[in-house]
Specification:
heterodimer; A: mainly beta; seven-stranded mixed β-sheet; four-stranded antiparallel β-sheet; 11 strands; B: mainly beta; five-stranded antiparallel β-sheet; globular
């Protein structure tokens, strides 16, 4: 079965510090991969998606960037975090007809 | 752009009651999905619907893909405390190069024992 691994589970970072969240995929190859942000335990906002290595599409302008250096690795980054970057970040992968989500990273920028 | 209108936003019910929530859109989709998210976790797929008019059950959960392909509902029968969480509807048109899911804003369910 396909699994999405995300880490860390929680992260507290000061304003202005860099960020790197990693997502890896197990059990399949060539998935579409997605980064979502969820604020206040509600709706999911699509940030980035990738259909293959080195291919990144951004859905909303923001302080974050994404990269896909390997087929099963998707990274969310920032050079300088803002307070407004706080939230719950979810990685998801699509295989065929379904989406599978990782367990998320709770980011608090202080 | 395409949007899913999910209602209600939140529900407070007594244990044992039935729950109903729905999602509508002005756009047509060929796939509807329902997810549940427990606090601090990622959403987990509950039910997937791939055919207009399809009615699918998963234990106490029942979901239907609307005949117009613009809506879907989820029912939970005889709710229990572990049903607490946020339920999301999602839809997409599978077959495109992206097939990106669109999500509703969620229904937050609280169950009183």
């Amino acid at each position: 079965s396909q699994t999405i691994h995300q880490w860390p589970a929680t992260l507290v970072q000061p304003v202005g510090s860099p960020l790197s969240l990693e997502c890896t995929v197990e059990g399949t190859s060539n998935p579409n991969l997605y980064w979502y942000r969820q604020a206040a335990g509600r709706g999911l906002q699509l940030l980035f998606y990738s259909v293959g290595i080195g291919q990144i599409s951004s859905e909303v302008p923001q302080n974050l960037s994404a990269s896909r250096p390997q087929d099963r690795q998707f990274i969310l980054s920032s050079k300088k975090l803002l307070l407004s970057d706080s939230g719950f970040y979810l990685c998801a992968g699509r295989w065929g007809l379904g989406y599978t989500f990782g367990s998320g990273t709770r980011l608090t920028v202080v | 752009g395409q949007q899913l209108n999910q209602s209600p936003q939140s529900m407070f019910i007594q244990e044992g009651e039935d729950v109903s929530m729905n999602c509508t859109s002005s756009s047509i989709f060929n796939t509807w999905l329902w997810y549940k998210q427990d606090p601090g976790e990622g959403p987990v797929l509950l039910i997937a619907l791939y055919k207009a008019g399809e009615l699918t059950s998963n234990g106490r959960l029942t979901a239907q893909f609307g005949i117009t392909r613009k809506d879907s509902f989820l029912n939970i029968s005889a709710s229990i405390p572990s049903d607490v969480g946020i339920y999301f509807c999602a839809a997409m048109n599978y077959g495109g190069s992206q097939g990106n899911l669109i999500f509703g804003k969620g229904t937050k369910l609280s169950v009183k024992p």
